[in-house]
What we know:
By secondary structure, the chain is of the alpha+beta class. The chain is built from 5 helices and 7 strands. It has helices at 2-20, 60-64, 91-99, 102-125, 163-182, and strands at residues 24-33, 37-44, 52-58, 133-136, 140-144, 147-148, 151-152. The strands form 2 sheets. It has a 5-stranded antiparallel β-sheet, with helices on both faces. Strands 6-7 form a two-stranded antiparallel sheet. Residues 66-77 have low confidence and may be disordered.
Amino acid sequence: xxxxxxxxxxxxxxxxxxxxxxxxxxxxxxxxxxxxxxxxxxxxxxxxxxxxxxxxxxxxxxxxxxxxxxxxxxxxxxxxxxxxxxxxxxxxxxxxxxxxxxxxxxxxxxxxxxxxxxxxxxxxxxxxxxxxxxxxxxxxxxxxxxxxxxxxxxxxxxxxxxxxxxxxxxxxxxxxxxxxxxxxx
Length: 185
């Protein structure tokens, strides 16, 4: 229907830069649909050493609620499109973000994405068990895909853990928590 058309158009607009950068060659399926974002299984471009990638595409309506999310009041640093921290002296940008006018909404939308991308990059670089972020567009983050063509790797709640796997898994979870705490997350 009409909604599907809008969704497909949004998906194409969100991922087009990844096609132009020769990162993707095809979108194969939706892996996970969510309130704020959907994750798509994509075929990596043939020049890549990867077979599949995951594209996390944020929904347009997700950005409409941004000014109410308390992100800035919690003291998160506003991050501009280059991923650089905005100078607090750029009061116009900060005011735009906090008042939620159109420029501000576009900036908080970018900042949200850049923040998530930077967090993923920092965790990956620190050795955490997270997918490597590969590229970012206005509405999407492209990252390593964990799984195969039949589906994503199962979550812990979906697998049976053998007794001898419990301690190594627990140690790995604690190692990741340690990295997150070291990164201030």
